[in-house]
Amino acid sequence: MSTVLQDVRYAMRMFLKSPGFALVALVALALGIGANTAIFSVVNAVMLRALPYSDADRLVVLWEHNRQGNNPHNVLAPANFMQWRDEAKSFTEMAAFYDARLNLTGEGEPEEIPTQVTTANLFRLLGREAAMGRTFMDEDAEAGKNNVVIISHGLWQRRFGGTSDVVGKKLSLNGQVVTVLGVMPEDFRWFIKENSLVGKPAELWLPTKFDESYRNARGRFISAAARLRDGVSVEQAQAEMSGIAARLEREQPQSNTGWGATVVPVREQFAGEIKTALLVLLGAVAFVLLIACANVANLMLARATARQKEIAIRAAMGAGRLRVARQLLTESVLLSLAGGALGLLLALWGVDALVALSPPNLIGNEGVGISLPVLGFTFAVSLLTGVVFGLAPALEASRFNLNDSLKESGKSNAGSSRGRRVRNVFVVAQVALALVLLVGAGLMIRSFSRLQSVDPGFDPQGLLTMRVQLPGAKYKETAQRIAFYREAVERMRALPGVRSAGVVSYLPFASLGARTDFAVEGRPAALPGQEPGTDVRVTDENYFAAMNIPVLRGRGFTTQEATEDRKVVIINEALARKYFPNEDPLGKRLIIQMKKDPEPTEIIGIVRDAKYDKLEGETYPMVYWTYPHLPYTTMTLVMRTNGDPTALAAAAQREIQAIDKDQPVADVRTMESWVGESISRARFGTMLLTVFAGVALVLAAVGIYGVMSYSVTQRTHEIGIRIALGAQTRDVLRLVVGQGMLLIIIGLVLGLVAAYALTRVMTSMLYGVSATDPLTFASISVLLASIALLACYIPARRATRVDPMIALRYE
Q1: Coil, strand, or helix at residue 268?
Q2: Phi then psi for 514, rounded to 5 degrees?
Q3: What span, in angstroms and rounded, lies between the C-alpha atoms of 487 and 505?
Q4: Is 707 in a helix, a strand, or coil?
Q5: Does residue 348 contact residue 29 with C-beta atoms inside 8 Å?
Q6: What three-state secondary structure class fits 580?
């Protein structure tokens, strides 16, 4: 221990004697370790940390597998859930839930609350109890007793001020009086974003019961979770569920042909949508750290030149090779730990920046932070880094010829051919690693650029949107709903600066929509599971004008059709192309399966394709119905303005309050913000990968420059002789630059091979660009080669200015 402390004290003195070296090394290491710590904190929170549920590894999420639509994670039909619940033996318990939005009125301003309607056993299945009060019991879901709710910790704090008397409090929810049964703990969050109609974590839970009344319910709209029995694996549960789904397909072909079942572990479900992106980013920062290690290793090798005589004297006094290597390795580890401490400070800022810049509900609510596992990771990485970049220089510096080293004019061991080879290897590695990162960033940038250029099919500029949900208890009649939304649209159109206004059931990019089967009147009935499918939107006669979606053929809805149910429908180009490829669809009648007793509706117009789910991918067939035909309680108002749409937000909300003072308004936003949010994940990943690639490029350029500068210094005597013998400037430039570019070319070749293999994991993150795009590979290679050439040229230019008389005396 005393020897170790002696090594540490000596290392500190050496760093104080060379503050420039220590500072450069610390900055490089801090950047690499800090970036790794920041990204690992996200990986730990999303993929590794313990989930806030009892025995979470036994929890799974259940989906129906829509084979025709190639969607293994489709929501369930209630009747199928009941069959699964009754027959599956792989689970101890199964719960169902679906998202909703409910209006909370009474005390304070009216507010729309994201809600989850769930079977009473959900909290029991998850193994979570209420922080105050209690969770649901089975009897709470019985008819007449289900007027109870559980609220989240956030809603309790925000709406009720965190008062202790909230349990038992009466609330007005969609016009119905309910009683608060309990408050969930602060860390409780049960949110399956995939296929969520709300897109936000629930703040309130209502009990329900799936009984015989749901056996004949139409559509698929619920999600399910289950707990595996002891000894049952996910694979065994999947096999059983697939068997049950296959039997239902045979017994109920009309509703279950083409439908299977999917079992997904909860952790995989939560991390699935960002897992690939996180692993790519973790790999990227690992490359940055390796480049930093190569940089510092080269600095250590160069520094050994100045310490050659010191090391020789230590050896002459009895220090063996192992002792010398241990001293140098102690210095590198100490330097790395200091870099890790500085990197941890950078990571504290970096984690906050990651959370602030990340898209909504991506990592912001996952408990990202510097926890004990993250601290352990940082320490381990710092220690390993010190060994990685210090081992080669320590072993190389400890190889010396004592007699030569003690001579005043002895050749530096660090400058020996073996030392040069080690430094050259580090340069090649830096170039190869930097190229892989730059190619990845280049692919992401090209992909994001193409994604941004996708035409959504409407003009998002100047559009203000806001969602209104009418409580069913208060607006029971269709006429009441029609009257409310017509008055709302008229009031919006009357606002100064509003050019047009309309309503739609599901706003583009705001949430999932409705999708169903249909038939064309007069055509033979399709076989079960092969029925034509379409998305469905409900609009008024003003929606297409407000969104700037042109009617290409036929006509739009009239005011009378938007007020009375006239059995007319408008389709988009995609539906016309797919289902009427060689005939005119105008005048044809569709039987759309959205009602219990569907009636034929006549096609009166064809509108331009518009994106509703995401910019990437194909546009789905779409039908637009008038509001009276399917009077939703929830609709979104869209207003096209002459100026800044946000300037009208307050006035628009006041108009809704003027119609009904208890009616809340939600998601008052511009259409541009909705479109921007839809590509926010791609933007986030592109930005981070580009930043890391930029850091890698700078570190690689600095490393190449450092090695070439050192090489010029070591060859000053040789260069002076060449100049004295008549070598011209171009000869010296060719000599020095040629040496550097040979290493660069080798690094580029190795980097291209590695990039070709590694960028394939990014395929799911790219749009419109191949993971092996030749243009990106070529342009990035030219960019890196150009910067490397500059890093070689500057020292080479300095070499041409060597004074031969001084160089000939250079030792």
Answers
A1: helix
A2: -100, 140
A3: 17
A4: helix
A5: no
A6: coil
pLDDT digits (tens, 9 = 90+) for 147-202: 999 999 999 999 999 998 999 999 999 888 999 999 999 989 898 877 677 878 89
- The residue-averaged pLDDT of 720-742 equals 80
Q: Which residues contact 476 (CB under 8 A, 6 or more apart)?
A: none
Which tokens belong to 170? 């009466």
Taking the C-alpha atoms of residue 647 and residue 642, their distance in angstroms, rounded to an integer, is 11
Mean pLDDT confidence for 724-734? 78
Largest CA distance in the chain: 105
Helical segments of 495-643, H only:
543-547, 559-563, 573-579
Q: Could you give the CA distance from residue 666 to residue 635 in angstroms, rounded to a whole number?
A: 11
* 636 membership: H or E segment, kind and range: strand 634-641
CA distances from 579 to 423, 433, 451, 575, 595 (A): 66, 50, 28, 6, 22
Burial 46-76 (b: 16+ CB within 10 A, else e): bbebeebbeebebbbbbbbbbeeeeeebbbb
Residue type, 774: P
Q: CB-based contacts of 284: which residues, under 8 Å, 6+ apart?
A: 437, 440, 688, 689, 692, 693
- Alpha-carbon gap, residue 84 to 61, rounded angstroms: 13
One-character DSSP codes across 88-117: --SEEEEEEEEEEEEEEESSSS-EEEEEEE
Sign of the Cα torsion 320, 323, 328, 329 reads positive
At which residue do the structure tokens 């703990």 appear? Answer: 185
Q: Which amino acid is at 432?
A: A
Triad 453, 456, 460: Cα angle to 5°: 100
Q: Measured between alpha carbons, how far is 228 from 259 in angstroms, rounded to an integer?
A: 22
Alpha-helix residue ranges (DSSP H) falling in 358-398: 372-397
Per-residue pLDDT at 413: 42
Give dist(CA 256, CA 441) in Å, integer: 44
Closest of 179, 163, 172 to residue 104, by C-alpha:
172
Helix (H) or strand (E) holding 439: helix 417-452
Within its chain, how far is the Cα of 419 from the centroid? 44
The first and second tokens of residue 344, run together, are: 């941890």
Alpha-carbon span 37 to 44, nearest angstrom: 10
Instruction: Identify the residue whose tokens are 């009147």.
Output: 521
The mean pLDDT of 43-65, rounded to a whole number, is 89
**With bands split at pLDDT 50, 70 and 90, how would you rate the model's confidence at 665?**
very high
- The DSSP H or E segment spanning 64 is strand 59-66
Q: How many CB atoms lie within 10 A of CB 688?
A: 24
Q: How far is CA 731 from the centre of its chain?
A: 52
3-class DSSP assignment, residue 337: helix
> For residue 411, is pLDDT > 50?
no
Per the prediction, the chain carries an average pLDDT of 86
Q: State whether residue 673 is helix, strand or coil.
A: helix
Q: Which burial class, exposed, middle or buried, applies to 233 when counting CB atoms under 10 A from its CB (0-12, 13-18, 19+)?
A: exposed
DSSP 375: H
The residues that bridge with 205 in the sheet, in sequence order, are 116, 150
All residues at 6 or more sequence positions from 459 whose CB lies less than 8 Å from its CB, including other chains: 547, 548
Which structure tokens are listed for 698? 């700078």
Using CA atoms, how far apart are residues 379 and 329, in angstroms rounded to an integer?
17
- For residue 322, count other CB atoms closer than 10 A to its CB: 11
